[in-house]
UniProtKB/TrEMBL annotation:
Residues 3-192 form the Ketoreductase domain. GO terms for molecular function: oxidoreductase activity. Coiled coil: none annotated. The lineage of its organism: Bacteria, Thermotogati, Deinococcota, Deinococci, Trueperales. Keywords: NADP, Oxidoreductase. Belongs to the short-chain dehydrogenases/reductases (SDR) family. It comes from the Bacteria. This is Dehydrogenases with different specificities (Related to short-chain alcohol dehydrogenases). SMART domains: PKS_KR (SM00822). It holds the Pfam family adh_short_C2.
Length: 251
């Protein structure tokens, strides 16, 4: 049976690359996007061109009240498109970055990061649990910044640290259903994260590259295929792990 993956925030960046990589591995993909329907539909079209099924739903991952109606839309889509009641893999990728030193961080920035990266991950996963197949997989995205410090990302990294602990609890509590739960922690990647800080600021790019054993910052193609591989049957015995994909950042 074809595996179905739900990837949040998959209209661009790492989410987009992950969705496409899953399709290349033979999976069907349901993706969410927050605001850009055109970007999301472009990803859907790319996946369909591979001969896989895909669809996109609008979802603000910070809006817990939106999760219940989203689950009902998803349930209908599973029945009508796949003739199934469940999907197999959840990738909690949606997110954003805020670059701010501690003394300059606003309450709005703080709350925004918590709502999307921690509260949203917790309550969306909770809402989706009845639709995740036994023996399925959950991947939560974290960051190399939980272990390798870079001033200006204190709140972002702290929230991702909470996600790493949450991942272990999810793995423990869902293990009886055969659901494996892991964290993937990318290192510095050239995307529009944080306003494109790493991608578009040469001095920052070099600072991170100098920390990395392989001598360069990452690109989305370094992350998406790894997540797709983690979801494969070859990695069915991996759970409750934090897997850093950073080119050896900071060792």
């Amino acid at each position: 049976m074809t595996k179905i993956a739900l990837v949040t925030g998959a209209g661009r960046g790492l989410g987009r690359n992950t969705a496409l990589s899953i399709a290349r591995h033979g999976g069907d993909v349901i993706l969410t996007y927050r605001s850009s329907v055109d970007e999301a539909q472009a990803v859907v079209a790319e996946i369909q061109a591979m001969g896989r099924q895909a669809m996109a739903f609008q979802l603000d991952s910070s809006d817990v009240a939106a999760f219940a109606p989203f689950v009902e839309r998803l349930r209908t889509a599973l029945r009508e498109t796949w003739q199934r009641e469940t999907f197999d893999h959840l990738v909690n990728n949606a997110g954003h970055g805020e670059y701010a030193m501690i003394e300059g961080t606003t309450e709005a920035q703080f709350d925004g990061l918590v709502d999307v990266h921690f509260k949203g991950v917790f309550f969306l996963t909770q809402a989706l649990l009845p639709l995740i197949a036994d023996g399925g997989r959950i991947v939560n995205l974290s960051t190399g910044l939980t272990n390798r410090l870079y001033p200006g990302f204190s709140v972002y990294a702290a929230v991702k640290g909470a996600v790493e602990v949450l991942t272990e609890y999810m793995a423990r509590e869902l293990g009886s259903r055969g659901i494996a739960v892991n964290t993937v922690a990318p290192g510095a990647i050239e995307t529009d994260f944080g306003g494109g800080l790493v991608r578009d600021t040469p001095e920052v790019n070099k600072q991170f590259a100098d920390m990395i054993v392989l001598g360069r910052v990452g690109v989305p193609d370094d992350i998406g295929p790894m997540i797709a591989s983690l979801l494969s049957e070859d990695n069915r015995w991996i759970t409750a792990q934090r897997i850093e994909v950073s080119g050896g950042q900071g060792i």
